[in-house]
Amino acid sequence: MTDEAKDEKDMSPDERMEWLRNRGIEIVTPPERKLGSVAAAMRDADQLSDSSLIHYVYVPSDTSKPIEERSFSTSLATSSAKDPLLEHVKPLFATGSDRVDVTLLEQQGSPANLLASSSSGAAMPHVSHETLQQVAKEGHVETFTLVHPTPSNNMTSVLVYLDEVGMLKRLPLNKRATEFATRAGYNPPPQFYGDVVLGRMHYVRNGGGRKQPVDLKLADARLDAEWLLHAVMQNIEHQQQFNEATGTKQEQPAVKGTDGAAAVERDYIWTQSEEELEVRVALNAAASPISKKDVQIRFAPQTLQVFKPKTVHIALFERVDVDSCTWTIEKNEIVISMEKQEAALWPRIVD
Question: What's the rounded Cα separation, in Å, for the pair 227 and 39?
């Protein structure tokens, strides 16, 4: 055995490492590896420029809370993400899975904004409570296009990002989001449940469907923002192009109880406008005519109760102005009129 081999055998760990390094062997210890990772992360953060940040707007359903401008880095999104903003906001909608109420699907009648039935009119497939809870836990995000991409807006759309099962979580209506849709020309406007996000997406010309997020800032969340002033005409432009390309004519589905079509419930029928709600309670046609003394009705901000001549109890979806509530008798019906405290179309009458 050589003296060199003997010396190596007798070396301490630190001496052995130094001996190997002197002979061109690269060695990295765990502490050095950790330090290098931290340094790399700090270096990446220092190199993160504003150009990689995309701004969007967060709109709470609670109107007492301010609209906020937020941002995220596109460099942190997965390369497979078709919409990096959609991926980024998923955690925002991943709460409240224990509040999912499947019975609302039946009350809603049409599962719009959630699980639309096929265009052929086939029945909606059964969806289990467990499946919907899993969807809620994963933070599934639905998008609604406020402004469609057209040549006149440089193929740039504005989208609402919302909780896909917000209705089933019984989240409150987002009246500010509905107002954006109204200003964009949707009549009737869709209902949005819970907090939402507004974002902007640019479709790359001749890019094979490729799209990329672009900034939408707090100033763009004003009702007099430039993009919103042109939204109606741009959506009409998009609709005309779609109709010409497909030979079809799309129409917005009516909200329940609107367009003169009464919504039918077990003990009554009802219609609505944005400002008012009308409930009609049918009486026994074979019974003797009744007078006002035969009727007993009680109004509360979010409850309607009929005690005589028949019993009807409705826990209302939203609040009404009790002082403006009236009723009258028309032939074999009690007609009840209520003024909504806040103007908006309700997706259903029952909370």
Answer: 43
- Extended beta strands in the chain, E state: 53-59, 68-73, 141-147, 156-163, 196-203, 211-214, 263-264, 269-272, 276-282, 296-300, 303-308, 312-315, 320-330, 333-340
Distance CA 163, CA 195 (A): 8
Mean pLDDT of the 280-290 span: 80
pTM over 0.85: no
pLDDT of residue 3: 47
b/e map of 198-229 (b: 16 or more CB within 10 Å)?
Answer: bbbbbbeeeeeeebebeebeeebbeeebebbe
What are residue 19's phi and psi, to 5 degrees? Answer: -60, -40
d(CA 159, CA 282): 43
Average of per-residue pLDDT across 67-76: 86
pLDDT in tens, 220-276: 999 999 999 899 889 888 888 888 887 776 666 677 888 778 888 888 999 998 899
Gap between the Cα atoms of 214 and 53, Å rounded: 9
Sole residue written with tokens 């933070």: 139
Give how far Cα 99 sits from Cα of 57, 166, 168, 171, Å: 26, 10, 8, 9
Write the single-letter amino acid at 176: R
Q: How many CB atoms lie within 10 A of CB 50?
A: 7
Enumerate residues 6+ apart whose C-beta is below 8 A from 334.
Answer: 280, 281, 283, 295, 297, 306, 327, 328
d(Cα 199, Cα 216) in Å, to the nearest integer?
6
